[in-house]
Structure formats: structure tokens, C-alpha cells
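Can anyone check this?
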Amino acid sequence: MKEIEVFFVGRANAGKSAVLKELFGLKTRIGRRPGVTRAPVRYQLDSFIVIDLPGIGFRRGLNGYRRVLSDVIEGERHKRRPRSLGVQVIDGKSFLEITERHSKPLDVDLFEYLLDFEIDPIIAINKMDKIKEHEASLDKIVSRLGMLPPYKQWADRVVPISAKRHDVAQLKWLISHRLQDMKNKIRESEVL
């Protein structure tokens, strides 16, 4: 069976590398400033590959990011889908601030872009330790992504986390279940 690739995408400084470090114990480069991850970084794990993609919005807009992302996704399409799982990491606090100023911020555009590629991404809403009124904020976030609140109805897609506080267990559980479902589908398609 060919390996599944799990790619992590999002805005610069959303905490993608910190999330990877917490989830899988990877030795990722983490910094306070955006742009530490400058090129896709691949990590081979037991039964899948993790790809940490550079953040959008820092030194490159969504168009350049789309090219990098489409290379990952298109490469997977040639291997017969489903082989890719996308995890979009969102900085919950800045997402709310940015979406109030812009009609269609990069995070929303990226989410729609993943859906256009027929990837049902997991949305990891990071930095929950910096957000007050969790329920109301999470409802606003899912609404701005085009999903109907309350956010709890999207438990198979939306996960509030805080990598800084080591609170990623729910995300780890969701990723492992998605991976298992994908592996089962791959086995079924290989039998046919």
C-alpha cells in the first residue's frame, strides 16, 4: 500500500511547526517571527509522511502558495486518491481580527482552495489559550469559513487546540481516525 501524505497548511505564524512538534515529537524549527519554515519539509513516520508547508502571507501571497500546494496535491492525484490529508492550522485570535478587516482573508481562501481540490481538511484552531469566550469565538470562526454554527456540529472537521499548552490530543485523535478511514478505503480500492 502506498503511503498517505498529511500536509499542514496555514498562515505564517499560525503555529504549524509547533503543532507538528506536539503531535509527533518532530524536531521542527520554531520561531516567534513568521517565516521560519521557508520550503516544504517532509517527515517520514511509521505509516505516513508529514509535510510541513511554509506559511502563506509572509513573503508570498496565495498564488505562490497555491503552486506549492497544487504540486503536493496533484502529485497525489496521480497515485490514485485518496492519498492526502490536509490539516489547516489557524491562529484563532488573529483569524477573528483579520476577518473583521478583510472581506476574504487568506485563511478563508485557502480553506475553499482545499475544498476545490476535494480535500476535506481538518481545521486546527490554534492558540485557544489567547482567546476569551471560546464558544462564541469558535462559532464566529466556523461561520466565517462558510459553515453553520455551532462549531460543535463540525467535530469531525474543526478542532480547538493550543500547541503552546500541549493541548493537541483531540487533533491527534481526529488525524488518526481520518488516516485509518483513508487506509481502509485504499485497501478496498486495491482489492477491486
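Reply from J.R.: I decoded it. Residues 76-81 have pLDDT under 50 and may be disordered.
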